[in-house]
């Protein structure tokens, strides 16, 4: 039973991410959504908040679990007994970065394969960054993220405004 590791920041998880997960479950019976702990990246949600949100929105997806990790992705993947990294791509702009990362990961561990799934057309323009920007300015993000994420974003931005 092949385990795939779907790494990312998922800050926050979007319907595009969930679409990739649903489609990947048709290929891989088990998937770990792996949040990399990157101290240099400024995140809106804490790792624990993201783990909680992902756990909730994927609770009906059999075979999916969320974890966080430190260090090299290749070490984490092999530590789980996996040899598959799952990545989603939206546009050609994603391709160069993803290609570079896949080649570097292959240099680190030639036994780990990177599998790319293209996003569904309706999520082509959706990214966590653009979702956060729209939500921070009061934009309508319904239908682009799960309702839980929409609610948590509204709460988070209300807290940030109150703290100013």
From TrEMBL:
InterPro entries tied to this protein: Cyt_trans-like (IPR004821), PPAT (IPR001980), Rossmann-like_a/b/a_fold (IPR014729)
GO molecular function: ATP binding; pantetheine-phosphate adenylyltransferase activity
Site (Transition state stabilizer) location in chain: 17
Residues at which substrate binds: 9, 41, 73, 87
One of the Pfam families matching this protein, by short name: CTP_transf_like
Gene Ontology cellular-component annotations: cytoplasm
Top EC class for this record: transferase
Single GO biological process annotation from the record: coenzyme A biosynthetic process
Chain positions recorded as ATP binding sites: 9-10, 17, 88-90, 98, 123-129
Known EC number: 2.7.7.3
Keywords: ATP-binding, Coenzyme A biosynthesis, Cytoplasm, Magnesium, Nucleotide-binding, Nucleotidyltransferase, Transferase
Primary localization class, coarse: cytoplasm
Catalytic activity: (R)-4'-phosphopantetheine + ATP + H(+) = 3'-dephospho-CoA + diphosphate
Keyword Plastid set for record: no
Cofactor: Mg(2+)
Domain Cytidyltransferase-like: residue ranges: 5-133
Pathway participation: Cofactor biosynthesis; coenzyme A biosynthesis; CoA from (R)-pantothenate: step 4/5
Cellular compartment(s): Cytoplasm
Subunit text: Homohexamer.
Family, as annotated: Belongs to the bacterial CoaD family.
Function: Reversibly transfers an adenylyl group from ATP to 4'-phosphopantetheine, yielding dephospho-CoA (dPCoA) and pyrophosphate.
Protein name: Phosphopantetheine adenylyltransferase
Organism: Desulfarculus baarsii (strain ATCC 33931 / DSM 2075 / LMG 7858 / VKM B-1802 / 2st14)
Gene of this entry: coaD
